[in-house]
TrEMBL record:
Transmembrane segments: 33-56, 62-82
The protein, known as: DUF58 domain-containing protein
PANTHER family registered for this protein in UniProt: SLR1927 PROTEIN, SLR1927 PROTEIN-RELATED
The entry's keywords: Membrane, Transmembrane, Transmembrane helix
Amino acid sequence: MFAIRQRLENYLQTWFKRRAPVSRDITLNLRNVYIFLSKEGLLYAFLLIITFVAGINYANNLVLGLCFLLGSLLVVTIHYTFAHLAGLQIKLVGISDTQVGGKVQVRLQVSSESSQPHRQIRLSFANNAFDFKQPIHRKPNTQSAPNDWLLVSQIQAPQQVSLWLTADKRGKFVLPRLTVSTVYPLGILQAWSYVFFEGHAWVYPAPLSYEMKASQFVPSDDEQPAALHTQAGQEDFDQLDNYVPGESLARISWAHVARGQGLMSKRFVESVGQQQLLDYYQMPAVTHEEKLSQLRYGVDSLTQSQIAFQLRLPDGEGAIGEGKAFRQQCLLRLAKTP
């Protein structure tokens, strides 16, 4: 039974995608808008049948007239419900990356190609796409709790709205199908459409803290341990060397000359910061995902400390860098690691 249901769902999914191909923007029309009775509409249809049977059985023209009036109202409602969804334009504006357990923000632009506004439009990535017992979103710029559904009271001029999806797995996050629906005006009919967006986000591993020790860092290519790197400069005294003819007399250590120790030249250095190598194989965790999470912690810690570092992953090494832009590059590498 489960296999039959799965086949049916796959067939319907393929059929819906053919009628609404994957893209970054779509206009709802006769080809991709579906309409059927809602739960209340089923009760309404049952009432029509009972009224019609009663009118025929008792030969009561008044009851039959009421039945035809209610039937006409249903036909008119079909037109209005469809019209309030057809012509709606939806465009994917952007998707934000996040970490495991975080929220992916999906920014959409909704507008209408007709002069009439669209009312009571529900946008939802959730399974309960037809649950309209929710608060109405009256102002598109109102900051509310992140959710995967949104009920917009009226759409006419272009406006941007945001939906939020929970990311529970590291890697490439492909957007699920968006359900756009309405039960306007009477609630007895529901019109809906499925939108398949061409877009994805990247989900980074969540940071997992660990004790960062010097022994856990691999020496850099010049075989120096993870320590303070220096270069010739003017700040800090480093050592004495033999005087080389042509050097500035200001560098000569005259105290040594006075003691008869010959000409000695003072050397100065300046700090250029630390350079660390975050190595996947040196992480203390056991599992693959935990190692990546510890690397994420190391990336955040070294970036906050303004220390240059290099990230070594199983798929290769990257360049040495620092700063927020370099941190973002490292997070993307962690997200894309197989």
